[in-house]
Amino acid sequence: MSSMAAPTAERTASVKTGGRWKFFIGGLLILGAIAYVTLSSFQTNAIYYLNLKELNAQRGSLINQPVRVNAPLDRSSIQFDDKTLVLKFNLKDENLLLPVVYKGVKPDTFEQGESVVAEGKLGTDGVFQASTILVKCPSKYESGTPAK
Amino acid sequence: MADFAMADLGYASLLLSLILSLYAAGAAFFAARRNRLALFASARHAIFVVAALTTLAVGVLEWALITHQFRFEYVALETSRAQPLLYNVSALWGGQEGSLLFWAWLLAVFSAVVLIQNQDKNQELMPYVISGLAVALSFFLALMTIVTDPSKSGLFVLTPLTANGAQALVGNPFRLLDFTPLDGNGLNPLLQNPGMFIHPVTQYLGYVGFTIPFAFAMAALFTGRLNDVWIRTTRRWTLVAWLFLSLGLLFGMQWAYMELGWGGYWGWDPVENASLMPWLTGTAYLHSVMIQERRGMLKVWNLGLVMLTFVLSILGTFITRSGVIQSVHAFGVSSLGPWFLAFLAATLLSFLYLLFNRMDDLREENELDSLLSRESSFLLNNLILVGAAFATLWGTIFPMVSEAITGKKVTVGAPFFNQVNGPIFYGLIVLIGICPLIGWRRATAENLARNFLRPFVVALVTALALFVVGVREWYGLFSFSAVAFVLATIGLEYYRGVRARMRQYGENPVKALLNLISSNRRRYGGYIVHIGVILAVVGIAGSTFYQVETQANLKPGETVSLKQYTLRFDSLPIYSTENHEVVSASMTVFENGARVGTLSPEKDYYASPNPDQSQWTTEVAVRTTPLEDLYVILAGFDAQAGTATVKVIVNPLVVWLWIGFATLVAGTVIAALPDPREARALARARVKEALAQV
Fold first, then answer.
1. Which of A35, B275, B607, B635 has its CA 20 to 30 A from that of B596?
2. A 62-101 residues inside an 8 A Cβ radius of B
3. Domain limits of chain A?
4. Contact B419 A49 (CB under 8 A)
5. pLDDT exceeds 90 at position B269
6. Residues of chain A contacting B554 with CB distance shorter than 8 Å
7. ipTM above 0.95, yes or no
8. Which residues contact residue A145 at a Cβ distance below 8 angstroms, ignoring those fewer than 6 apart?
């Protein structure tokens, strides 16, 4: 949507030409640079976003690779050591189970969590070391059906 | 039965508003094409009635929220008896249906104001402006009123209109339940924060506000009146909308900082990005219009930017409300998606169609003269701002796109956004310093040397001073010396203006400064905005690069130390308030051994009859000084043993982020004040347009 592009012929005749191209090329260079930085950082930072089935299928190649997992939370498995601030829980999808360890403050809505998005790395011991976690509640800010 | 009658009243108001909006859209358009003045007047009146009716609908919903009409599904979901009045009032924008109503209401009121302002101005543009605004209004009204299953609506039975569970396309705010619950669920405790009262309102005012300049842009395209009259007419609307987007960002960041309890105010979360993107393109637009006003250039670019800002505002509403993207601020999944995407696509296509039809009328009146000119530095600023918006958009929506195309879900987090936007924003900061000092059309090397020598020296001295006090990281040195450079250039600009006035009019410095600002509010208000941005950069750089933290499990009497602070844990009082229980860790703060105060981080428990709805929230405690925030989180506690686990964070310079935004707001207000200079410019533009028509 560059607007520098289209002055009419009679105008360009009266003003010195060549000026336009400087701007056009300069603008393209800058946009190109921004696009390059965007795409290259995207490639270095892009990580797979998987469910447990996909994670399990590719687990050999994903060991110690950054990955984001989204899976249902097994609420009965939640353990929080509030002295050392270590949170342990299991993500569970049918017969697949993924133990997750997260070091940090437990999110306020964790106990109501339906599913968890965890970003981190899968260790060789099969435990997922999460660096960030995001809880998905049934509907976080919109509560469920009111009780009768 | 009051609830039935009121629900009907609310729903009927919206339905009638929809019909009148559709009528206004068609009538105004037809009136313009066939030059029917009476029809145009009728469309105007329809908009006024819509503004009144949507106000009535908001009044009805507020009445229900405040008086606990739990038969209203929305009231039962968003409020409760124990909830303080403030949060019952703000529940209007707490849920999806209410948010849609709030959007529609703001737009209707804004439309009415625009009509009054332009009662005898812009007579050629106004019919199309009304038509465009009415189309947008109809869209939001339709989402609330058109029912998916007409057999259930009871629409033609009229008794009761809404009681039969009429489920609208997206959400009918006046839907009634088939029973009356004794109490409601209440707003999620995380939303029960003063931020709830102010952040969504300012955010929506900003989003909705950009509809006005966009409607004028479309009208300009329809009529072919593509000079700067439409831009100058909407200058203050644009500024005010931008002001509210800025306030929305400010209050959103403060809320996240105090409520989410992770010590930060910005996490590149999709919902946060959604509020940043229209702000970036809106900022670009505020700058690029100056080139069209002065030189008659960048016409297509300006139209494109205002369209982009409007589309990103709609997208922002959509991302925030729809839950299509995983977010910490997720609002639950909804059926908004297809409708919003269809509306966005329709907007984009009609804009492009009009634009290509008008290409001949969009010729530039001038050419750029020199790479070293105000124009080209504005262009660079625009490319950078739009580039940042696109990079942010790319990272935000790519997960959806990649899943749709390849079936693989790939995503990026904060590191991506920091890596891309970091350098972009550095470039922007330097430009803020350079831009105002380069002359229009063509600057010379001599002119540059004269303007930049002193600021450059100031930057070097700052870097040296920081190096001497022990700052060694290049990013810290660069950020703070760039800040010094920009402040020096702006200071120099003010100094010259004040000195000139003192010489010319013999004014004292204070009077000269005030008169300087009011002689050209737009320019000097703009510089104040720049100072605000630079102060915000100080806060962002400090808290991003120099945050330190520690955690400790403490028995009463034990201490934890971080930097020059020592915190002693004294006791763990537990008590009740109006609607929640409080566990508070009472701590005494010592700085370099001297007692400086107390801090009490809390965990609050909101009990609910439904155990699944009961919830803890974390209330951080913060001690703010100009140099740093001492930020304490109660992460865990043992009520029986009386012990507490706290996380302590020192966030340097955060207060400058808030001061910076406050300064930015003040500068924007100055720039938006009525300005005789701008009024004269608009009058000249109108005369020029009239002459061109002859």
1. B635
2. 68, 70, 80, 82-85
3. 9-45, 48-136
4. no
5. no
6. none
7. no
8. none
